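User: My instructor asked us to take a sequence, write out its structure as tokens, and then describe one feature of it. I'm not sure where to start. Here is the sequence I was given:
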Amino acid sequence: MKTDIEIASEAKMEPIAEVAHKLGLTDDDIELHGKYKCKISEEYLRSIQNNRDGKLVLVTAINPTPAGEGKTTTSIGLAMGLTRLGKRATLALREPSLGPCFGLKGGAAGGGYSQVVPMDELNLHFTGDFHAITSANNLCAAILDNHIQQGNELKIDTRNIVLKRCEDMNDRVLRNIVVGLGSKADGYVREDHFVITVASEIMAILCLANDIEDLRARLSRMVVAYDTSGNIVTADDIHAVGAMMALLKDAIKPNLIQTLEHTPALVHGGPFANIAHGCNSVRATKTALKLSDITITEAGFGADLGAEKFLDIKCPMAGLNPDACVIVATVRALKYNGGVAKEDLSVENIEALGRGIVNLEKHIDNIGKYGIPVVVTLNAFDTDTEEELEYVRNFCLNKGCDFALSKVWAQGGEGGEELARAVINTLENKKSNYRPLYDPALPIHEKIGIIAREIYGAKDVSYSDAASKKMAQLSKQGFGNLPICMAKTQYSLSDDPTLLGRPVDFTLNVRDMYVSAGAGFIVALTGNIMTMPGLPKRPAAFDIDVDENGKITGLF
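Assistant: Let's start with the prediction itself. The structure tokens for your sequence are:
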């Protein structure tokens, strides 16, 4: 069996200029980064603002398990299936982080015969967007520390600096560090912290900015510290915004690549969904809507994380109105939720399937609360039995959802045609009445309570003393009307990763919160969620190498 990178390396890609031409772009509208990837120019992005929008389809999933779900693979295969059926379809996806690539989870280019390419370049340096975000973040941090070193005119409280440095790599030893050791000339000694780049506020800002001026305004509002009187100090106050803009001026332009079957894919931005908002950039999504009849986008991890944030943060901010939602599941993952051990998932077990399908049911119910019609797709495995497939199909049809089997990993676009037809049927025959779950003007605790009860199924919410104090402080500072970005484990609907299926009567524990004023939301930290992951005992990096011809091997 061929690996993903072997399949991708054998693909016959079209020059990206030809893919752009299919969308109506000229050579003057794109900025090439080699032969097979490009950015779309600012001039062109401004020129299409009044174009008609196509339909928007969100792809999400059940809670991830070790059995795998294949959300990105399904998104790509669906777009290729729509193209095969004569629809003008475009993908709008996230860029991968180097952390998972070299760590445990893997990349974000899809898999099998349902990939975007060039997958090796996408999963590594790509067009340099993440490097630019990392540099802009750390430049701001350096300017902040230099301000303190050079007399601290703003009277910044060195015990209350909230901006953290970042890098796009899992490096646990950088979570909590001490900087400024040495002589007086080496800076002020203080505790500091690193987050992974995809958890940085600048990543969230870039992905929510409508245009370059909105980017500037959001960067200016970033809270970087507090002064000794408890007043906010922003990135604008320390004169860091202009230099950050210089580093981000190209990173904010969407990237265009292609699928294995040459369907256009705008791949831009990549905030984590269990820490940040988990969606690709607003600019990429809006551009795709202007260029196609149907835009396929995805949100990270399960619907309780990525989809909730897409629908309660990204859509209201960007003025997006999704027309349908695809929920991805696998028979194997549903049986895992029903208590079957990973090594036994290949054995037919209808009873366990019945126990585990409640996780899928909860996600279907949740999306229904937003007024969006749902299509459920099973990402097919060879070990699935006809009885298991029929059980899930009947369950979904009884829930009022369209259902389709997806075979895109093995068959590419052809294996996505059944799902494409189901999506087309939903778009043509079911009306979306999208509405956010809550009014952002509600008090912070009420918004968190709504998410906890309605989306997670919690009975109650508890707050640590630190979280309660921060909540009162943020409300007093005028941030109480912002939406909530919940930082929570992806493995369970609850904040306990061991609670599978559909937990009930649990208490959600909020241990801390902070404002991302530039991004425009409040982050509520639950459980033991971390903003700087670590590497596993045997990281994927051990298998990655380059041969004598410069060809990368071992990258999935």
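For the description part of your assignment, you could build on this observation: DSSP finds 19 helices and 25 strands in the chain. Try explaining in your own words what that tells you about the chain.
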